[in-house]
């Protein structure tokens, strides 16, 4: 059976498996990145097969999306029927009763095909509350041509020291290229995703086992010092304004020699249609600091249905379609295998067409599988999550710490001052939340 | 009647209509009402709406409608009677209802104003309680001996000061209004980011609709303190309208509006209703809900002292003490005056002492202040029939050929129809309440109509429709005497009018309290709300607000007091 026929049949199955209802418009909030924008582009396939459903898209950058969606869901405003959320929010929001349990997926959806770690990260008390659209870890993306030009070879497992020396060498020789690109834009899902992961590899942790913040510790000091020095010396201009999307564009334009970021970026930077350096990109693991922990995170962007939605059945129908195997096949048919949403389904990594088209696939898989959200730091921690801590207070804490690091990056305050400030604000929050002491 | 034989010049000014030259313009009433309705009660009422489970839309729309109805009541009911008679209700009753009625009326006032005073002292005591780390009082009665001691001590001080230095506290209260208005608003502004953060993890709001969503999810949730569906828009409208029934339908505010040059100045009450009973109630509710969220407790039991402390830091301590004290002071005064009228044979000291003891004892019971909203509503219900009786005399009787002042003309001792009407109306109102067929905050409406109807019927039977030519002639002569006395008074008082104080020092004093006491704290509060993109910045901005607002407060009171004393001396 041809792929297109299977897609058509699958869409029909979806359409037939739900009762016919009056026309409904689903409001979908999603993040502005190539994979999500592709979903929007391909969504007429869904509406054609489901003529009773119309789609209204709200596409926002990561920070705006997170705040808007959080406000909408937490206040039960019901502006959005479907929200794009991640591994941090899903279990917390499910616990609050803000999301619909996605039970009752049809057999052809094959929920067991989803990587267990990804499925677990989007579950609460055994129920799946958001369906993964794509999953990612982080790794090192670099320009092989620039490495060759300075006679450097990227090791399979680079260290942060090596990354710095490579960035220095390349910057010295290629003044029109930034030696390194790292997220600097403030946000718990922006700069803090990288900084938390990096800190883990440096032996730092956010809290000790008594929930006391450890942000003034030496390991955090070294992390933030190295991070700010790397970006101040070899990074792009105004590094505190560079988030995932900005850095993706910089890399595609040939302005980054090394970029340590989400594995999902790989398809975009190796796509000759959009990237000027598509044939000059290579990959390596996320760096470590010699302490046995790599700085790779685990994340998935997933689609959840708001409990405040009055169109939950229609919304579930769309979520099933967008996160199904058949959607992956639809993308493969229309956009090529290298552009399919990665990281969620085991079957994708057994698909030879995909493996052949995506040179980053195996390393992505290895990064996802090696991420340890249950044991993120060198030392024991009381929380789960690599680039976040799975407590509701992390949103506020993460943004506040990220803001202090960004100030240090700009040179407005010293690193030690940023650490002191971060420690103070985190202690305040944890005290108010009765994790420590009693305020 | 009894005063007619007395020389007009010898009569107490209170017994005479307001002289035309002493009337005020609209500006006076705009300021007066803005000040009058920002008090410690607002802290409690704001939180009460949250505990009663109103939704955000019910609050925004319901309060707007209810307060508009209150303004219209002032404009269309109170103001025309006040302007027509130029008397306070106290004097009106004295002249038109007789001694017995006056005693009952004053007796009711003793009970009402004693309860309000006690409630306001408890509000102040909650701030002192927080300062001494005494546990919050979550029951209707005191559960800590230390709290009882604190309430007793605060109450005693307030009562003694009210007795010894009422005028000083009263003067002090007159300068509080701008500061209270600012701090009520600032408190809400300062805690909104914390409230938002406690729910979403973010400190900033992107739009007004975000604010509505936040307030709907955290403050006005539609669920009451018992977890049941809360009150709806009709109840909110009713509460807002009924909260001041004793002042508008009950005509107590004739005392203020008798000075209005024009009837339409009743509309000036909008400053009090739309700020104190709208912005301040909503702000107090936001503060209460945020404090409850931060303290991880129920808003039904969170105390004004905690609320103000969390919202305003040390300034919060001051606002609760000041707002509670100044409100208690004026109500103590009213309770004392009323008590003296009830017991004219007992010395003023003894009466004041008795009222003081009752107030202090009541202040030990948190039940009183927690039930201030129903208390005000029931107080309104008790006094509304009197408003109905006066309304009938002044607005109905002239239209149906009855004599509005029939009681004066007839020259009898007691106005029996008024007494019976009040009794019937109370029985009617409280029976309706007992059988629970309409919400208690709307009871005042049928009760008011019943009082008008009953009084119209009874008054006719007692001679309201009769003719009293002799007495009318005497009364007309008395009115002429009053007019000529007022004309003479106007000439005398015109001589002592001084030039407006435009000195540089006065301007500098005024600029200091306006800029440092009002503008700077407003800017600081603005920064907390609109320039706190993350928690660190929020805490930093909030700490700066806390640290500076208290000094701005000190400077405000020093310079506003100085300004007041200079204007008294020079103006």
Automatic annotation (TrEMBL), chain A:
<feature type="signal peptide">
    <location>
        <begin position="1"/>
        <end position="22"/>
    </location>
</feature>
<comment type="similarity">
    <text>Belongs to the bacterial solute-binding protein 1 family.</text>
</comment>
<dbReference type="InterPro" id="IPR050490">
    <property type="entry name" value="Bact_solute-bd_prot1"/>
</dbReference>
<dbReference type="Pfam" id="PF01547">
    <property type="entry name" value="SBP_bac_1"/>
</dbReference>
<dbReference type="InterPro" id="IPR006059">
    <property type="entry name" value="SBP"/>
</dbReference>
<keyword id="KW-0732">Signal</keyword>
<protein>
    <submittedName>
        <fullName>Sugar ABC transporter substrate-binding protein</fullName>
    </submittedName>
</protein>
UniProtKB/TrEMBL annotation, chain B:
<keyword id="KW-0175">Coiled coil</keyword>
<feature type="transmembrane region" description="Helical">
    <location>
        <begin position="349"/>
        <end position="369"/>
    </location>
</feature>
<feature type="coiled-coil region">
    <location>
        <begin position="468"/>
        <end position="495"/>
    </location>
</feature>
<feature type="transmembrane region" description="Helical">
    <location>
        <begin position="544"/>
        <end position="562"/>
    </location>
</feature>
<feature type="transmembrane region" description="Helical">
    <location>
        <begin position="59"/>
        <end position="83"/>
    </location>
</feature>
<feature type="transmembrane region" description="Helical">
    <location>
        <begin position="30"/>
        <end position="53"/>
    </location>
</feature>
<keyword id="KW-1133">Transmembrane helix</keyword>
<feature type="transmembrane region" description="Helical">
    <location>
        <begin position="375"/>
        <end position="397"/>
    </location>
</feature>
<feature type="transmembrane region" description="Helical">
    <location>
        <begin position="236"/>
        <end position="257"/>
    </location>
</feature>
<feature type="transmembrane region" description="Helical">
    <location>
        <begin position="307"/>
        <end position="328"/>
    </location>
</feature>
<feature type="transmembrane region" description="Helical">
    <location>
        <begin position="418"/>
        <end position="435"/>
    </location>
</feature>
<dbReference type="InterPro" id="IPR030191">
    <property type="entry name" value="CodB"/>
</dbReference>
<keyword id="KW-0472">Membrane</keyword>
<keyword id="KW-0812">Transmembrane</keyword>
<feature type="transmembrane region" description="Helical">
    <location>
        <begin position="508"/>
        <end position="529"/>
    </location>
</feature>
<feature type="transmembrane region" description="Helical">
    <location>
        <begin position="104"/>
        <end position="132"/>
    </location>
</feature>
<feature type="transmembrane region" description="Helical">
    <location>
        <begin position="144"/>
        <end position="163"/>
    </location>
</feature>
<protein>
    <recommendedName>
        <fullName>Cytosine permease</fullName>
    </recommendedName>
</protein>
<feature type="transmembrane region" description="Helical">
    <location>
        <begin position="175"/>
        <end position="195"/>
    </location>
</feature>
<feature type="transmembrane region" description="Helical">
    <location>
        <begin position="441"/>
        <end position="458"/>
    </location>
</feature>
